[in-house]
């Protein structure tokens, strides 16, 4: 695999980043995941706009303009012959000489930029989507700025492990009795034909897939309510699903061991999945 690091295209085994990088020492950096279907980037401008916002919130200068970012994305797709999968992009505050809590001077310490591709031939025709996933509820113990897509993913990773150890696929996080989101996706329930998902705030990541799916749902005359919902409400829902760049619309069939509806992917979730894939590819 060819990867990109700080201006160079290199075989993955030759790419290097300093041990003093603040991404490594302090999780001081942000990332994006952009899906590729048939060699085409999905929602590139949305991901770039969010990258810009995440960097701005952390006072990291955006090291490239839109066309430069696009060029690197396209070059990696071409060099790796990527058909279906994703491009991972990470920008950290860079590597000053010493470990220090104070931000380094941006004139002397440049951000570190890393991009790589990851292939996933089962992205569109996903066996998991045909089956649906099981989730468990866990406390949301993350920091309060989940709207910034930082590389600080330890708790989401622990949540995913708690789910797997409990025989489920993923975890939904609960704060003050309501669901915030999944470990790496936005969460939705459907009751009496109405799609309910938490409103945007600092509590959740502003999903690029979320924005597209809600737009398609409204275009298809499906009612949408952006509000918080409780775990009890979720367990009593007709359907549930999650969205992310790497899963599109993924039906949820079980919450904390309670099957939703027939315990199989719901018809509206599956329809939204089809619409999303057709409209964005
Ligand atoms: N995760 N919420 C969280 C906490 C996420 O990490 C993600 C994305 C989303 C969905 O955002 P989008 O639709 O823009 O992908 C919501 C990515 C895919 C990841 O960490 O791999």
Automatic annotation (TrEMBL):
The keyword Secreted does not apply. Gene3D superfamilies: 3.30.470.10, D-amino Acid Aminotransferase, subunit A, domain 2. The lineage of its organism: Bacteria, Pseudomonadati, Pseudomonadota, Alphaproteobacteria, Rhodobacterales. It comes from Rhabdonatronobacter sediminivivens. GO terms for molecular function: branched-chain-amino-acid transaminase activity. GO terms for biological process: amino acid biosynthetic process; branched-chain amino acid biosynthetic process. Keywords: Amino-acid biosynthesis, Aminotransferase, Branched-chain amino acid biosynthesis, Pyridoxal phosphate, Transferase. InterPro entries: Aminotrans_IV (IPR001544), Aminotrans_IV_CS (IPR018300), Aminotransferase-like (IPR036038), BCAT-like_C (IPR043132), BCAT-like_N (IPR043131), Class-IV_PLP-Dep_Aminotrnsfr (IPR050571). CDD domains: D-AAT_like. This is Probable branched-chain-amino-acid aminotransferase. Belongs to the class-IV pyridoxal-phosphate-dependent aminotransferase family. Its cofactor is pyridoxal 5'-phosphate.
């Amino acid at each position: 695999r060819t990867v990109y690091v700080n201006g160079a295209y290199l075989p993955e085994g030759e790419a290097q980043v300093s041990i003093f990088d603040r991404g490594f020492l302090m999780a001081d950096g942000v990332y994006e995941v952009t899906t590729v279907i048939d060699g085409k980037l999905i929602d590139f401008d949305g991901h770039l706009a969010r990258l810009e916002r995440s960097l701005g919130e952390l006072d990291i200068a955006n090291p490239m303009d839109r066309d430069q970012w696009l060029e690197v994305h396209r070059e990696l797709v071409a060099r790796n012959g990527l058909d279906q999968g994703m491009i991972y992009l990470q920008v950290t505050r860079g590597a000053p000489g010493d470990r220090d809590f104070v931000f380094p001077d941006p004139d002397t310490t440049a951000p570190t930029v890393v991009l790589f591709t990851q292939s996933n031939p089962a992205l569109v025709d996903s066996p998991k989507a045909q089956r649906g996933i099981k989730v468990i509820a866990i406390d949301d113990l993350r920091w309060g700025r989940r709207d910034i897509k930082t590389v600080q993913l330890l708790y989401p990773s622990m949540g995913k492990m708690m789910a797997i150890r409990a025989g489920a696929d993923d975890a939904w996080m609960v704060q003050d009795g309501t669901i915030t989101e999944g470990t790496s996706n936005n969460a939705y329930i459907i009751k009496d034909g109405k799609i309910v998902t938490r409103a945007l705030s600092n509590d959740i990541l502003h999903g690029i897939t979320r924005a597209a799916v809600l737009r398609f749902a409204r275009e298809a005359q499906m009612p949408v309510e952006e509000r918080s919902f409780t775990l009890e409400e979720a367990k009593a829902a007709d359907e549930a699903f999650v969205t992310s760049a790497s899963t599109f619309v993924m039906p949820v069939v079980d919450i904390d061991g309670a099957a939703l509806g027939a315990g199989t992917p719901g018809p509206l979730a599956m329809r939204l999945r089809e619409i999303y894939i057709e409209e964005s590819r």
